[in-house]
Amino acid sequence: MIVRKRRRIQTLFRRIVSVGSLALLFHVFQGRFTLLRDTRTDGSFLVHHFLSFYLKAGCKVCFVGLIQSFSHYNVVAQKLGVSLPAAKERGQLVFLEGLKSCFEVLFKEEPPTGQPNPLQFIREGGSNLKALYEFVRTSLTPSESDSWKCPVLLVDDVSVLLSLGMRPVDVLDFIHYCRVTVCSQLKGNIVVLVHSSEDSDDTENELVVNALCHQSNLILWAEGLATGFCKDIHGQLKIIPRGPAEPSTERDLPRTYQYKIQDRNVTFFARGMSTAVL
Length: 278
Fold this sequence. Notes:
Layout: H1 2-16, H2 19-26, E1 33-39, H3 44-56, E2 59-65, H4 70-79, H5 84-89, E3 93-97, H6 98-106, H7 130-140, E4 149-156, H8 159-163, H9 168-185, E5 189-195, H10 203-215, E6 218-223, E7 235-241, E8 255-261, E9 266-270
Helix pairs in contact: 2-3, 7-9, 9-10
């Protein structure tokens, strides 16, 4: 009887909780800044699912992909039912391929569009991120012919900017100006991934992580299991709403789910409710 009851509860959680439903639950409101944080694991699966969710929802997306190539993101997006080249062709997706832009800067090649390279700060000794901000602003500012829904900025991942020589204050200024433009002026949403480590000596990265946590409206924190690798449970996800000092409703309370990454989906369940346990 107890096992049967647990399985019913597990089925209920699996029906309710998915990456898509998380995005829908917390992004029905516009003007929100969501921070994707990972520790001891790779949280990029959240970026892929948010990207596919917003494209399917008909939103205008500016995707700053600093960690992987366009072909990599496209392969994953196809598994989730989205074609990134088709989205680019119809003007719904504006993609910045960080690896390609870095190559153009380092070898002094002019961008095909003739516009300033968004990552030209690499050549200028890490002066500022104004060119990258202008790229985001012009990409998401709607034209008269645009019929897309709210604009969305995705960044994967902001920790790379520190690795490229930017100071924490410059990275935080960039996020601040993007929030003012995208969230406040354009009434859109921002989703940013950042890596963190509890025992890291990288004080600059941890400073950026802590500052972004305070600025965000929602934190999705993916963590590896403290007990190590498990083939049936890949990690746990903490959902931390950022609002009033005292939670007003049960929905405002932090929640923790465990998850398993599958080929075309991510299964979420309450802690201790995995099929490997029951």
